[in-house]
From TrEMBL:
It comes from Mucochytrium quahogii. The lineage of its organism: Eukaryota, Sar, Stramenopiles, Bigyra, Labyrinthulomycetes. This is DNA helicase. The keyword ATP-binding applies. GO terms for biological process: DNA replication; double-strand break repair via homologous recombination. GO terms for cellular component: MCM complex; nucleus. Belongs to the MCM family.
Length: 781
């Protein structure tokens, strides 16, 4: 080739740069050229070394403007270096192919900003993986044999579009029919994923539809992501026609003229996955898929695997390297981009304490401080800890909260505020959500292959999923059982069996049946919800709209004050007269304490700053329980067990104890502490007590620990009397003995919902449903 060709000059320049004595020779020290099929470079380090060799050139601009030629020349330089150092007899069929990959390419371009000017340029985008197709072979080059003369023609297949030769290259042959040799075809693994831009607060407020873009993965990049992952993809933006897409194994023949409308896709060069981790030998998260890609480990063979298992020192070094890469990969983008001013604001907010954070969450809604406290604890989350045994499952650290109440009390506003301030939040409405929209859906592409598309719970992995109008999805509740406890979503559709991570905290809001919460009924009767689903919520708050002169005046003043043209500059102090002062040490009534503390603050923490605060707390704080805190939580749990055991069935299980631990850890995490103190445990006990009292209190104010599940007493009486009326018509009698009544109660399963049958009969007698005669016979009225 002529030495004046641009690609020849570029190849020689890269070869001199990566030579052992070159400026970038240190980048190749850990690379085994004889076995490597890819070489991963850090973009910042590569650019810095390249500028030392040639200060006048900017490698970033060169790569961005002419990406294809730059990558091909760099790959050609690597292949020529391998031929110099490797034994030619040991080189396989892939000796002429090494893929150079660049990670941490900056700046990151928003998916919404990708336009036609970015075509053929090298960019880096970040988004959620919402769709993943299967892996299939893509033909890059194929041999065609002329059916007339047997001439062999080798032709490249660009973009995977099948195009046989138009005529035979033999000048003596005019054949136009060819037979493809599939055995000699050169193929590469191919997979397509779809990225959706990360929903920012500005886009959600403006009502903008999230943009998506398809990404093509080839070679070593396939099977590195699953639906729900947050990834950063570096690659070349290119355009394809619809006919090119149909040519990749499509059932359509693709005849006709090519369309002038192009579809923009990204040909991936490198992937940085910051969502999925791989569990190590010690049971902890020690490596990530990004670490597997970036460490550029040599090809694993049986000999190297045996050496790895027998060499303890090598295993320790590998764990340490994986741990370092895991820390970099798992660091949240919000935490990584914190400035000095952000750290000062975080320290200042931490000094105000937990009460100030409660005040800053949804300040547009006055009151409901205990509900805001519960939602804030769910946003912070507990600590994921493994049980005894290195292969034991991980105990979930995410807390689930359910808010039930009358319409117009601000439930939806609080959920939207939680989705806004959460580092990774998804907000959905129950009346427009299906089972597939919550979990995973299965789609079929043009080639007939099935692909997985992530739903709301999968997209909210390691974040918060806010579900409004929770009562409107009563037929889809079964889909949430596995996600709320095991934090996994199992899929078995169209021959695909897999499990996707759904490590998310669910914040739900529901309206009771009839528009008003009926205290004479249980929560299950007010919502028509199953008992297993209700037991998975750590906190259940019931909001009832009760007329109150003092509360109504405070709310009216607050609402009017927000709508005046010139807001009065005064402190928002809404103290009710006659209330005794509650100190910080008195945590027996957290609701009253928070209500009084709200009057001491003036300006809330901005939502953007609260989001950074929560991201910082979730990433750096992993609290552990102290001995005094353990005793308080354990004592409260045993108290609930004793009270719940007074009846035949009890709703109190070990889930309540795990909920107490999670909430206590979240309470310490919100103040950036590593130890759960005794005061934290007392506040959580107070909050849990308020939640249980709301759920177990009947219409006359009596606390019944059997009311969280089953039927209320009024419904039990109605069911039993309906049964007696049916039997009375069949037997033509209105008189029953006590044994007959007990037998009918057992048949109608009424005995499962009453603690004492004699007391139940006395209640029916007092309410004149049945009348007891002198002979011990009961007459149905």
């Amino acid at each position: 080739f002529s030495a004046d060709l641009p690609w020849v000059k570029a190849t020689k320049l890269f070869r001199a740069f990566l030579a052992p004595d070159g400026a970038g020779g240190g980048l190749m020290r850990s690379v085994d050229l004889e076995k490597a099929t890819q070489v991963v470079f850090d973009f910042n380090e590569f650019t810095q070394k390249f500028s030392e060799m040639d200060p006048e050139s900017d490698f970033g601009n060169v790569l961005g403007a002419n990406a294809h030629m730059t990558l091909q020349c760099l790959g050609l330089a690597l292949c020529s270096m391998r031929r110099d150092v490797a034994n030619k007899d040991s080189l396989g069929p892939l000796a002429n192919h090494i893929s150079p990959r660049f990670v941490r390419f900056r700046p990151i371009t928003s998916i919404r900003q990708l336009k036609s000017i970015h075509l053929r340029r090298f960019v880096s985008v970040r988004g959620n993986v919402v769709r993943v197709s299967g892996v299939c072979p893509l033909v890059k080059r194929a041999d065609f044999t002329c059916r007339k003369c047997g001439e062999l023609i080798t032709k490249s297949i660009p973009d995977g579009k099948y195009q046989p030769p138009t005529h035979c290259e033999n000048p003596k042959c005019k054949g136009r029919q060819f037979r493809v040799d599939r055995a000699s075809a050169v193929t590469v693994d191919y997979q397509k994923i779809r990225l959706q831009e990360i929903d920012e607060s500005t886009n959600s407020i403006n009502g903008a539809v999230p943009r998506t873009i398809d990404v093509e993965l080839t070679g070593e990049l396939v099977d590195l992501v699953v639906p729900g992952d947050v990834v950063t993809v570096s690659g070349v933006v290119k355009s394809l026609t619809t006919e090119s897409l149909q040519g990749r194994g499509s059932r359509s023949k693709g005849k006709g003229r090519e369309s002038s409308l192009l579809i923009m896709v990204i040909e991936a060069n490198a992937i940085e996955n910051k969502s999925v981790v791989v569990k190590g030998d010690d049971g902890n998260d020690t490596a990530s898929r990004q670490a597997i890609l970036e460490t550029q480990q040599p090809e694993c063979t049986q000999d190297s695997a045996l050496q790895y298992l027998t060499d303890s020192s090598q295993r320790k070094q590998q764990k340490e390297k994986s741990r370092v890469f895991n820390e970099n990969a798992q660091k949240n983008d919000i935490v990584a981009n914190l400035t000095d001013l952000d750290f000062k604001m975080i320290v200042k907010a931490q000094s105000f304490g937990f009460e100030f954070l409660v005040y800053s969450l949804c300040p547009l809604i006055l009151g409901h401080e205990h509900v805001k406290a519960g939602l804030l604890l769910a946003l912070a989350g507990g600590t994921n800890s493994a049980k005894t045994g290195k292969n034991a499952p991980i105990v979930r650290g995410d807390a689930h909260v359910l808010v039930v109440g009358d319409p117009g009390l601000g439930k939806s506003q609080m959920l939207k505020a939680c989705a806004t301030v959460s580092p990774r939040g998804v907000y959905v409405c129950g009346n427009t959500t299906s089972k597939s929209g919550l979990t995973v859906s299965m789609n079929r592409d043009n080639s007939g292959e099935h692909s997985l598309e992530a739903g709301a719970l999968v997209l909210a992995d390691r974040g918060v999923c806010c579900i409004d109008e929770f009562d409107k999805i009563q037929y889809e509740h079964a889909a949430l059982l596995e996600a709320m406890e095991q934090q996994m979503i199992s899929v078995a559709k169209a021959g695909i069996v897999c499990s996707l991570s759904a490590r998310t905290a669910i914040l739900a809001a529901a309206n009771p049946i009839g528009g008003h919460y009926n205290r004479s009924k249980t929560i299950l009767e007010n919502l028509r919800m199953s008992s297993p689903l209700l037991s998975r919520f750590d906190l259940v708050f019931i909001l009832v709209d009760k007329p109150s002169t003092g509360t109504d005046e405070r709310i009216a003043d607050y609402v009017v004050d927000m709508h005046v043209q010139k807001r009065r500059k005064k402190s928002r102090k809404h103290k009710e007269p006659g209330r005794a002062k509650i100190t910080a040490s008195s945590t027996e009534n957290l609701r009253e304490y928070l209500r009084q503390k709200m009057g001491e603050f003036r300006d809330p923490l901005p939502p953007e700053m609260l989001r950074k605060y929560l991201a910082f707390a979730r990433h750096y704080c992993h609290p552990k329980l102290s001995r005094p805190a353990c005793k308080i939580l354990q004592g409260f749990y045993l108290e609930l067990r004793r009270k719940g055991a007074e009846g035949d069935s009890t709703p109190i299980t070990t889930r309540q104890l795990e909920s107490l631990i999670r909430l206590a850890q979240a309470r310490a995490k919100l103040e950036l502490r590593d130890i759960v103190t005794e005061n934290d445990a007392k506040e959580i006990v107070s909050l849990m007590r308020d939640s249980l009292l709301d759920a177990f209190t009947d219409d006359i104010g009596v606390v019944d620990y059997q009311r969280s599940a089953g039927m209320s007493m009024s419904k039990v009486c109605k069911t039993f009397i309906t049964r007696l009326n049916r039997v009375s018509k069949q037997e033509q009698t209105t008189e029953f003995t006590k044994e007959q009544l007990k037998n009918e109660a057992q048949i109608s399963k009424v005995l499962d919902h009453i603690p004492n049958f004699d007391d139940f009969i006395s209640i029916l007698n007092d309410q004149s449903y049945i009348i007891k005669k002198k002979s011990g016979i009961y007459k149905l009225m």
